[in-house]
Amino acid sequence: MSGGMMLVDVSGKASTVMSVKGDIVTYSTERVRKGIGNNSSTLFADSTETDGNKWDYPTSSFIVACSDESSDLETGDDLLQFRMPFQFELTDIIANTNSPPTGAAIHVQVQMNGSDILASNGIEIDATETSSEDAGTQPSISTSTLTFNSTISIDLDQIGSTLTGTGLKINFIGYRVV
Asked: Phi first, then psi: what are they for 134, rounded to 5°?
C-alpha cells in the first residue's frame, strides 16, 4: 500500500484472456477464454470437453394432436393448422398413433405457409407400427426454421388400407430461437 492506494497485480487474471464481447473465462489447467456461443445456445457442463463445458442448443419439443384419440383416421389437407408462437429450429420430427395402421403405411406431410417442410413422402408410420421412429423411410427435413407467426398445417396423405390407425400426433423436436 502506497499513499493510501492498494496496488493489485492483474497479470494472469480473467481480463488477460478476454478478447471479444461476450467472452467468459473458464478453467482447464489454467484460465482460458471461452468464446461466446451462437444466439440461442446455452452453456452446458460437459466432462468430455477440455475445459469442462460447451455451447449447445437445449432440446425442446411440442406435440400436436391431429385427430381425436379413437376415431379412424381420414386423409385430407389441413387436418390441423396453427400459428407458430415463436421461431423454432426443427432438428427432428416424429409421428405416432394410438393404434397402428394395417395394410398400408401412414404418410403425413407438414407445411409452413403452404409449402412442404419435409422432402418426399414426409413422415411415414409403417403398417403395424405406432411410431415413425422405426420406419423404413425416415423423414428428411428440407425447411428446418419454423418462423414466428407462420401457419403450420398437417396433411394426411395416406392411411392404413385395412385399419386406418387412430390418435395421430406429431412431435416437433428442436430448439426455440431467441
From this structure: -105, 15
The pLDDT tens digits for 74-104 are 999 999 999 999 999 999 999 999 999 999 9
Largest Cα separation within the chain, whole Å, is 93
Q: Can you tell me the distance from the alpha carbon of 48 to that of 31, in angstroms, rounded to the nearest whole number?
A: 18
The domain ranges of the chain are: 14-56, 60-177
Residue bearing cell 385427430:
67
- pTM across the whole model: 0.77
- Domain 60-177: which CATH number of 2.60.120.340, 1.10.3720.10, 3.40.50.10940, 3.90.79.10: 2.60.120.340
Q: Which amino acid is at 26?
A: T
Distance in angstroms between the alpha carbons of the first and the last residue of the chain:
48
Closest CA to 108 of 86, 82, 126, 88: 126
| Residues 178 and 40 sit within 8 Å (Cβ to Cβ) | yes
Q: Which of 174, 173, 154 is nearest to 110 (CA)?
A: 154
